[in-house]
Amino acid sequence: MKRLRLGAVLHFLIAIGHIGCLFALDEAFEAYGIREIMHQMVAGHFWMLYALTIGLVLAFILAGCYALSATGDIRHLPLTRLAIITVVVLYSLRALAGGISCIYDFRWLQFISSLVPAIIAWSYWPGTMRTFASKHKNY
Questions:
Q1: Which range of residues forms the domain containing residue 77?
Q2: For labeling, which of 25, 75, 94, 127 is most exposed (least CB within 10 Å)?
Q3: What is the pLDDT of residues 100-119, one digit of tens each?
């Protein structure tokens, strides 16, 4: 349960970080080397970058809430186990892709941005187990 709580805290911190990025989106995109891609993606509709970032904030908060639901710290949310499994799969893929990227072009920001998803996947892993689910009636 401590690991799931750690995952929830990390998600809430990531959400806060993304809220902070709302005040300097171009600088954040530039730091990650995705400024041009993001601008091309929205085709001149810059408000979409803010909408996307707010959507990410909400998704990170929701993922954190699912971890707290799995531990029984908040009320049961629907499809909790499926949500936990989804988080583990997506973050494992993100960590793997980032790790491979670091092999070809190592940057500390990319390394940390790959390490955090690996830690989140590890912290959510206990929630994927059926034995964990059967021990927690709120699951």
A1: 2-135
A2: 75
A3: 988 988 888 889 989 999 99
The rounded Cα 58 to chain-centroid distance in angstroms is 10
Q: Can you tell me the distance from the alpha carbon of 69 to that of 122, in angstroms, rounded to the nearest whole number? A: 17
- Tell me how crowded residue 120 is: count the other CB atoms within 10 A of its CB: 28
CA distance 14 to 4: 15
12 in Cβ contact with 73 (< 8 Å): no
pTM, 2 dp: 0.86
Q: What angle do CA 111, 112, 115 make, to 5 degrees?
A: 90
Token pair listed for 16: 């806060």
Q: Which string of b and e fits 63-77 if b means at least 16 CB within 10 Å?
A: bbbbbbbbbeeeeee
Query: What pLDDT score was predicted for residue 139?
Result: 44
Predicted local distance difference test score (pLDDT) of residue 129:
85
Q: What total of structural domains would you count in the chain? A: 1
What is the C-alpha separation between 44 and 26, in angstroms, rounded? 13
**Rounded to an integer, what distance in angstroms lies between the CA atom of residue 43 and that of residue 24?**
19
pLDDT, tens digit, for every residue of 10-30?
999 999 999 999 999 999 999
